[in-house]
Amino acid sequence: METTELIELTVFASVAKHLSFRQAATERGTSSSAVSHSIRSLETRVGVRLFHRTTRSVSMTEAGQVLYSKLRPALADMQDALDGLNSYRASPFGTVRINVPSSLAAFVLGEAIELLANNTGLKLEVVATDSLVDIVEEGFDAGIRFGERLSQDMIAVRLKPRFRFAVVGSPDYFVRYPVPVTPHDLQHHACIRYAFPSGKILNWEFVKEGKTIEVDVTGPLTADSQELMVDAAARGLGLAYIWEDRAAPYLCDGRLRRCLEDWCTNEEDLFLYFPSRKHQTAGLRAIIDAMKA
User: What is the rounded CA–CA span in Å between residue 127 and residue 173?
Assistant: First the structure.
């Protein structure tokens, strides 16, 4: 097989996986027009149409589906063969794609990023989103999630540190409102709510002496960004229920104060997870070792 033919087939597989010329171009580090040219060239060479294309959508033809079903395992075997050579390298090499919750990305990837400085052949692509993602379907090498969101067929490595929530408000807010003593007092407070990408609102959960209380709060602001939430709380808009690490700089300089701290004792374990593979890339293995150290 000539190099051009192999390139066209790998481009086809990328478009088939994403059903998007733009996403395939992003994955391959090229332009959408270059991807489109490769697909047209492949279709001309094989003499059949592989994709139905409109201005809004891309779908595979029956011929495209047959080709993809045969091609995908072959390309996976080729990648495994190349990955098997990584054990002979002196340093990690290649590109590792990781999916991580946007609210925690800044606090968990420090060791992995430091690894890049000393390994010029290693590249890291991070997609930060609080949406639940199928890392295999979306082409990620690994993901980071809390334990209750992990699939049973994944290998999971516990990371440090553990995370817990904090309820915070500004000094100005506590001049206007009394400091809550129990979670039930939150019904009388202005609260800044977090919304998942699905639209579901996060209830505030508290644990004390084995007793768990979940509160459905209300307030003037609902957001899907903890950065916005902590800023709004510092401006005196209301109380925010956010990761302790996110609030730390504001607590240190006095812009925020904690409350209900004796109820915020529940710590959650975070995991780096990945599918079981015969040949794990040296890059992913190095990142796993760095993050669990």
Answer: 35
Contact (CB, 8 A) for 168 and 240 = yes
CA dihedral 39, 60, 139, 123 (to 10 degrees): 10
Q: Is the peptide bond before 183 cis (omega within 30 degrees of 0)?
A: no
Neighbours of 200 (CB within 10 A): 9
d(CA 91, CA 110): 19
- Tell whether the model's pLDDT for residue 99 goes beyond 60: yes
Q: Find tokens 């390139």 and name the residue.
A: 7
Give me the chain's average pLDDT, please. Answer: 86
Region 287-291 average pLDDT? 84
CA distance to 103, 165, 183, 186, 264, per residue, from 204 (Å): 16, 9, 9, 10, 10
* Residue 184 token pair: 């039930």
- Residues 242, 46: Cα–Cα separation, whole Å: 55
Confidence (pLDDT) at 206: 95
Mean pLDDT, range 253-257, rounded to an integer: 97
pLDDT of residue 92: 67
The tokens for 54 are 């409109």
